[in-house]
Design goal:
It comes from Haloplanus ruber. This protein has 527 residues and is mostly beta strands. It has 2 helices and 36 strands. The C terminus is likely disordered.
């Protein structure tokens, strides 16, 4: 037995005391201790630590704790104030309770002491109120003020705009507009619904109103489906007459008038008419409407051909809006004799080597005669000529004709028009036969054939002289027959062989080479 000296006994005593002290420490100080599981539910749905949820009433709040040791205390706090405290006699806790929360954001904290301290914190957003709207257009209100019961505007096209005030935010809006109008035999109601998403804190929604009284119902929905409803009457009081602009009246024929222009109104155009000056005959360029709200009638651009009364030198254009306001403009009639000539650059082309197709038109003039022709640009000779019109005055002429083309690859197409004053107008277009256009059927390349010479070759063969163009080519001399075979770069070349009696023949190189190899092989075997 070993006897421990005094210093050793002192060290052992210190270790024992330290071990006892560690045994008295809480579990949180022990390595490997597991924190308890804490679950918080709001209206039955779990909310993870650090997350948030939205409510519109006071739902049940659930708190569950599951630990691997005894739970000392559980504290539930709202915005830092303790609302519930539990001291379970065990390792689990399951509690459900209700909290009386005011609208706004609240911090819900669950603190658990089970050896150590563990915290679970969530944000509860209570939105029990409908959205508020502060209008900025077509009238203004404060944030919590309702809109006026009625408002008057001077135009049919208006914009509803404003700013929202809501905890969770407005997700979308619905604006319903209804207008009652007179049809002449009774009344009808026109309804239009405008719907839009509002991802921001403000909105801008254009709507179109009928002249007179309009009932507008606006609904604004927040994320929790709370809805704010506003109802009001918007009256369109249009006291301004329409405007007439960009007007022209041009005689395009003896009894034809082309009228162009634009009319605009704050409300909408009911009708647009034309009357020759000092004449009672009326032609409607826009038929009278019945008052139904129609955005297309707020601005009307017109271009019409109407019958012109003989002798009329001016016409009166009259625009009337739905409110009964009228605008009149007198427009002098201009006479247009000179037509506008156009040849279609894409449609006028070669069809084949001998035919050209010509396409084009003449407009806005008095046309008495018109022809289309093809000309050889090298000589000026007219190759083909076709009459397009001859006789009565016309104002519009379109055509597509096939004409003969010059033998060369170039052609000039000429469009000639004579107006009612006897003046000729000409426009031309040069066309070229492109390489892509087929002109003839391709001819097959002839196969070389042996052509006997008219003069017999002497019995004794003479060496064939190599042409100067091939004098530099390498060759192979065959013994016995005294023939030198040139070896050109192209395998398809032929050689000239002097054959007794028959004469020289041009023979393709490849067969001769093959025969040469066979012949040399035979000579080698005989030796």
């Amino acid at each position: 037995m070993t006897v421990m000296d005094a210093p050793g006994r002192l060290a052992l005593a210190a270790l024992v005391v330290a071990a006892g002290a560690v045994g008295l420490l809480p579990d949180a100080g022990v390595a490997g201790a597991t924190p308890p599981d804490i679950t918080v539910t709001v209206d039955g749905s779990p909310v993870d630590d650090g997350n948030e949820t939205a409510i519109n009433y006071d739902p049940p709040i659930g708190v569950s704790v599951d630990a691997d040791r005894s739970i000392d205390v559980v504290s539930v706090r709202v915005d830092g104030t303790t609302e519930r405290r539990y001291t379970p006699n065990g390792s689990t806790l399951n509690e459900t309770f209700y909290l009386d929360l005011v609208s706004g954001n609240h911090t819900l904290t669950v603190v658990v002491k089970a050896g150590g301290v563990t915290t679970h914190e969530v944000t509860v957003m209570k939105d029990a109120q409908r959205p508020y709207v502060a209008y900025t257009d077509p009238f203004e209100t404060e944030t919590h003020e309702p809109p006026p019961e009625s408002v008057t505007v001077n135009a049919s096209r208006v914009t509803f705009a404003g700013n929202f005030s809501d905890l969770t935010g407005v997700t979308h809006l619905l604006i319903n507009r209804s207008t009652e109008y007179d049809t002449g035999v009774g009344t009808r109601t026109d309804r239009t619904v405008y719907e839009a998403e509002t991802p921001n804190d403000s909105f801008t929604q254009p709507i179109f109103l009928g002249v007179g009284d309009n009932t507008v119902t606006a609904r604004y929905y927040d994320e929790l489906n709370h809805v704010r409803v506003h109802r009001l009457t918007v009256t369109v009081q249009d006291t301004a007459p329409p405007t007439l602009a960009n007007l022209s009246a041009v005689r395009t024929g003896p009894e034809t008038l082309r009228v162009r222009g634009q009319t605009t109104d704050n409300g909408q155009i009911r009708s647009l008419s034309l009357t020759p000056e000092n004449d009672d005959g009326t032609t409607y360029l826009l038929e009278p409407g019945i008052g139904e709200p129609d955005p297309e009638r707020q601005q009307v651009t017109f271009e019409s051909n109407v019958t012109l009364h003989p002798g009329a030198t001016a016409v009166v254009l009259r625009a009337t809006d739905t409110a009964g306001n009228t605008a009149e403009r007198t427009v002098s009639v201009r006479r247009t004799v000179v037509p506008e000539l156009r040849l279609d650059r894409g449609g006028t082309r070669y069809v084949n080597g001998s035919t050209v197709v010509a396409r084009g038109m003449a407009t806005d003039g008095e046309i008495v005669s018109a022809t289309i022709e093809t000309v050889d640009p090298a000589t000026g000779e007219v190759i083909d000529l076709v009459s397009l019109h001859d006789g009565d005055i016309v104002t519009d002429l379109s055509f597509e004709r096939h004409l003969a083309a010059p033998e060369a690859r170039n052609a000039t197409v000429q469009f000639r028009v004579i107006d009612s004053r006897g003046t000729e107008h000409v426009t031309t277009l040069d066309r070229t036969l492109t390489v892509e256009t087929p002109t003839a059927t391709p001819t097959a390349t002839p196969i070389p054939s042996a052509t006997p010479s008219a003069t017999p070759t002497p019995a004794t063969p003479a060496p064939t002289t190599t042409p100067a163009a091939e004098s530099n080519a390498s060759g192979l001399t065959v013994p016995l027959i005294g023939v030198t075979i040139p070896v050109p770069d192209i395998l398809g070349a032929s050689i000239s062989l002097p054959i007794p009696v028959v004469g020289p023949l041009d023979v393709p190189l490849v067969p001769v080479g093959a025969l040469l190899v066979v012949g040399l092989g035979v000579v080698g075997l005989r030796r």
